[in-house]
Amino acid sequence: MTKKMKTDKGAAKRFKITGNGKLIRGQANRSHLLEKKSSTRTRRLGREVAVSQADTASVKRLLGI
């Protein structure tokens, strides 16, 4: 009997799949030391961005897609 592959729960909390099947991730550098960063920079870092093409395959494997 083969076992099902389990979803990596750490990855599941960090990545989302859009309706079209793209992978979305949050950006780094928004958790602390925000006073020295400009408002423009912190606002930009708050947005989610697509996972790079090079990392897509490994992220999909972690999510069990």
Main attributes?
three-stranded antiparallel beta sheet; 65 residues
Overall description:
The protein is of the alpha+beta class and 65 residues long. It is 37% helix and 12% strand. The chain contains 3 helices and 3 strands. The protein has a 3-stranded antiparallel β-sheet. A hairpin with a 5-residue loop joins β1 (15-17) and β2 (23-25). The longest helix has 11 residues, at 53-63. The protein is elongated. The two termini are 21 Å apart. The mean pLDDT is 95.
What is this entry, summarized?
The chain is of the alpha+beta class. It has 3 helices and 3 strands. It has helices spanning 9-14, 39-45, 53-63, and strands spanning 15-17, 23-25, 49-50.
Topology:
Blueprint: H1 9-14, E1 15-17, E2 23-25, H2 39-45, E3 49-50, H3 53-63
Antiparallel strand pairs: 1-2, 2-3
Mean pLDDT: 95
User: Which value, in Å, is the CA radius of gyration?
Assistant: 15 Å
Spatial arrangement of strands, main beta sheet: 1-2-3
Strand content: 5-15%
> Could you estimate the helical fraction of the residues in percent?
25-40%
Number of extended strands: 3
State the low-pLDDT regions, or none: none
Instruction: Please report the number of helical segments.
Output: 3
Distance between the termini: 21 Å
Main sheet properties = 3 strands, antiparallel
H/E series:
HEEHEH
Shape: elongated
Could you say which structural class the secondary elements and strand pairing correspond to? alpha+beta
